[in-house]
Amino acid sequence: MPERWGLTLPLPATSLGASEELVKQAEAAGYTDLWSGETNGPDGFTPLAISAAWTERARLGTGVVGVFQRGPALLAQEAAALADASGGRFVLGIGSSSDRIVEGWNGIPFEKPLSRVRDTVEFLRTALDGERTSSGFKLETAPAQRVPIVLAALRGKMLELAVERADGAFTNFLPLSGLPKVTAQLDGAPEGFELLCRFFCLPGEREAVEPLARFMFSSYITVPVYAAFYRWLGYGDEIDAMIAAWEGGDRQAAAAAAPWNLIEEMFIFGSPEQMKERIAAFVEGGITLPILTPITTPDKLAELITALAPT
Fold first, then answer.
1. In the chain, which segments carry CATH 3.20.20.30?
2. Up-side HSE of residue 91: CA atoms within 13 Å toward CB?
3. What does pTM read for this prediction?
4. Region 6-204+271-307: CATH code
5. Using one digit for the tens of pLDDT, what is the confidence trace for 104-131?
6. Which residues, 6 or more positions from 301, have their beta carbon under 8 angstroms from its beta carbon?
């Protein structure tokens, strides 16, 4: 098992107010990390802020928050606040997000994402170190401890930027066969550099999980940034029919055209033991921090969290 083992917040089908016991249970079971997501549910900071009060040791990370939706000074303020509230247990994960979220949902032009992320990292590093930025911004109180910065990085140039400027890279929706291409971009990474990946864990065999898995795959991999990621990995021919159906407005046909071989490589299926064995293959391939998203009904969530714990 890797040194670190993460859990995604917010927990599926669970309100933030009802998550306290599950978060405490996860820490007691051996989860070392809690990493938030940020799509169309809670924002990336609030689940970590309340979890800081519920936990004693777990590292808390945004996995990830977008640099287009927030100005860099606000990001620095939020990071400093969480670093303070958690006693130095906070990691700031940032990324460009996606064109669908930035431009489609928020009405913000999705332009030059690599440059935007690079500029934001430079600003944050200066601000979080307690120095005045080129814009004149200076935190009232800088974090007592250095705040690590992790970049959401799918393809070559963003992975290169993570190696050059950050403490880790966060990948997502990654098939196992695509992992070597990602790790090949990390040559020259400094000691302690982390490669994080979120894993969607669906208990059960194919017939039980296939409808949901097909829906999730076709919903996400048709987003332009993820489609570009899969083409970069060499899977363009396998996703073309799915994307064509999605762009034609036929969601059902898109799900049916989703390539099962890639779904099976990306999602984590089976019994808890089988799921942990599958994640171990990713760890062996270079993932240093798996972040688990257990997907089940609320009445079975506590049991699944415990069953997938590293101990």
1. 6-204+271-307
2. 26
3. 0.96
4. 3.20.20.30
5. 999 999 999 999 999 999 999 999 999 9
6. 11, 12, 13, 14, 22, 294
